Structures are given as C-alpha cells and as structure tokens.
Amino acid sequence: MSTRPHRHLGRLLVAFLTILTVLVSLLPALAQTTPTAAIDVEKYISVDGVTWQDADGLPGPTVPLAGQVAFRFVVTNTGSVSLTNLTLTDTVYDLQTCTLPATLEPSSFFECTLTAQPVQAGQHTNTAVVTALYQGQSVTDSDGANYFGGDRPAIDIEKYVMTDGATWADVDASPGPQVIVGSNVSFRFVITNTGTVPLTALTLTDTTLATTTCVLPATLEPAASVECVVGPVPAVEGQHTNTATVTASFNGVSVTDSDTASYLGGDTALPVTIIIEGPVQIINANIVTIYDIDIEINADDPILNVIQIGDFIRVEGDTALDDDQQNLVVIAIFVVIVDVDVVVNVDGEVWRDEGDCSNGPPPWAPANGWRRRCEGGGRGDDDDDDD
Hints:
By secondary structure, the chain is mainly β. The protein has two helices and 24 strands. It has helices at residues 4-30, 368-374; strands at residues 39-46, 62-63, 68-77, 83-90, 103-104, 109-118, 122-134, 137-149, 155-162, 178-180, 184-193, 199-206, 219-220, 225-234, 238-250, 253-266, 273-279, 282-284, 287-290, 293-296, 312-321, 328-337, 342-344, 350-352.
C-alpha cells in the first residue's frame, strides 16, 4: 500500500500552518488604525511652592492676599503621530517664557512653570490653551485652574430624613424611602461654615417645615457646625420633597446654600425593602448586577464613578419588577463597597483607595488610611477609615 498520499497531506498541513503563523504575526500591523492627532494640557496650581493641585473646580484653594501662587503647565502628545507648530497661551498670564519644542512625539510631554504670581482678591479662574498641527490638521485642548484670594465666606447645609426611628438618610433625589401614611418622619439639618471667616446673621428656612424651634448661634466659626432636628411629623400620602435654605453674612457679603429631602408616603402595600450583599458581576450604566439580580442605582450617585466588577457591595433598596413585570429589580437607596475606602466631597467628586500606594488621594480627601500606609502619616489611630 502506498503512503505517498499521506506524505502529501502532511506536507500540505505543514505549509498551511506556516502560512497561518505568518498571518497571525501580521495581525497587529493589519489592525493598526488611522493615525490620530491629539494633545492634552493639564494646568496645576501651587500655593506653597511645593504641592501642586489640579484645581479644576471652584473655588479651588484659598490663598491669603499676602501670599503667592504658581502655575505648572504639562502638555502631552496623546495621539499616535508627531505634532509641530505648538502654541501655549493663557487667558490671564503671559507664557512667552515657556520653551516649546519644535516637534512633540507621541506620548512625549513638556512642562512650563510660572512662579511667584501675586494673589488677586476674590475668585480667580484662568485657562490654559494648547494647539498643534499634524499635516495641516489642527488639534487643541484647554484646562483651567482656580483659587480664591483672601477671606472666603461660604456655608453648607445638609438635610437628612429618618423614617424608621433610627437611621438618618441623605436623600436628595425622589422618591426617597417609602413610608406608611401617618407614621413618624423626622428631619435633621446640619449647617457647616465651609469658608475661612466667621459667619453671622444665620437664618434657616424650609419650604414645608417650621424651623422656629431651631437655635442658631450668633457666630459660626470656620469648620464649625450646628444641628437642628424637626419632628417627628406624620407622613403624608404621595411624593413629599421639601427644601431647606440657610443664609449667613460676613462684612456685608451674603452666602447661602440649599438642600432637599424626600420620601414617598403610601399604604401598607409598599414594596419590600431588602438588604443584599454580593460581588459585582456586570456594570451597565447605572445598573449593577450581583447574583444575577439587577440593582438600579441613582444615575447621579458618585459611587458609579468608582465601583468595579468584582467589588463586594452591600445594597439596601426597595424591590420592584422590571418593565416586563417578569424579573425582580432592586431600586438602591444605599450602596456601600465593602472593605474599600471611598470619599465623596461636597462637589460630588469621588476618590477610591485602591489598597496600594498607586492611587494617591486628591487634596480634599482626608484619606488617613492611605496616608498612614503610604506616607506614614494620618491620625495615628489603629483603623483605616477615612472619616
């Protein structure tokens, strides 16, 4: 019996595998996309000459009028092609002393620092703009920096609602917790001086509740707080949302802030509130899935910016059926990432401690656990909570 057909088949198979190997090695080159031109500028501010802050949001750091500020500009080629004809300008400052390269290669960057600038009184915002060219195509980017010069009066109010006689909830969005009509509901107001100067002439009003029983101090010092509780009052039927407003004054300058609280009053056939814990399987916009159960989180909740697949989360929420009335959905009231420190500031910015030293905290985050672990600082106690 002849074996030649088998030999030919073996040779054909070897040739096929060789060609396949070559094609696979060429895939990265074949998969390359069209060259892209892109540029990025990040603008930082320093009020001490040592620490740099990416102060994009208002008001930024507060600086004494006798102090000085410095700015640092970092320009990066974030595209895949070389850029030329670079320009760097600022809406306030002259940047002619900055040395710009003739060509900026992909992933390369250059820096420019503007030092010892006098502090201007009040809110100061300035924006850096960078431009560059690639084969006649212009690319640009901009970034702002903020600081407040001199005395800065500011005030904050947080309004909480309690429907179970034990737990205060910061429920800004409707519908809020669901309660039986006629049951007890209480409200707590927390007023904080978030500025740098004492505040006087405080007033507290509410769109629904009487606040005449609240005792306000004649003067509220910086970082000090005052609290007031109104209630319990009987829950009313339907959607209930009321807004608290606080005002104060410093040297004739008035400051104010408002916050809302919501609840939904109904009968005894209210949806069941449950608590569920488990690992995150899927994240789809504001829908998080654990144990194949969809958890609907408020789209404005900052925790959506840091929650990750694999996180072990604890959810308290109300149960409902989906649009098809087939599957159970949990409408989240509270969401906590277990054993992960997450800090949210008053502007809704959020920072997550990844558990190592690669993700340093922004200036506004206490992050005592991170600082003890990575810098040897912090409060010096034994727990890692970022209070």
